[in-house]
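User:
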Amino acid sequence: MAEPKYKRVLIKLSGEALAGEKGVGIDLPTVQAIAKEIAEVADSGIQIALVIGGGNLWRGEPAAEAGMDRVQADYTGMLGTTMNALVMADSLKQLGVDTRVQTAIDMKSVAEPYIRGRALRHLEKERIVIFGAGIGSPYFSTDTTAALRAAEINADAILMAKNGVDGVYNDDPRYNPKATKYDELTYLEVLNQGLQVMDSTAASLCMDNDIELLVFN
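Assistant: Predicted structure:
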């Protein structure tokens, strides 16, 4: 068996990926299918951390635009990411995969607090670590959470799963059949062209810390 290219990765999943065909909420068979794929990767000896968005349950920006206080809206979204993390952790544990959830907001009854040293120890023991509640502060996306945690745990790469899109395009290929797909880009090109791979804060973090990013469906 070939040696894996990466020893430690952070997988960023959109919350919508957990909704399946429903589009909203959590579809357990879909979560279980994703968990099975992640477990197969873990079986190959690769250390895995996960960040899951909360868009299947809540979106802070639209709520704020509708009149809700932005800070409260973002904190509500952090709770959504934690719900997704707990459901994914349960599905992984049912497959026999030792998994820990760590949250940036203290929720001791349901998850560990995020402590970098403890997260590194879990990864070294081949446990999957799922980071919930974003970075614990409003105005930051789960893309930024993924970039920050990847830097903190010294991940070799971020694997970013896009729901329904198989890579990076200059426009949304779901609506523009003439959209051009890129095979390779620098973060500076992503920022200069305003490509919607991840938000600018996350892209800058990845660029500054030289973290490789792979985008897939």
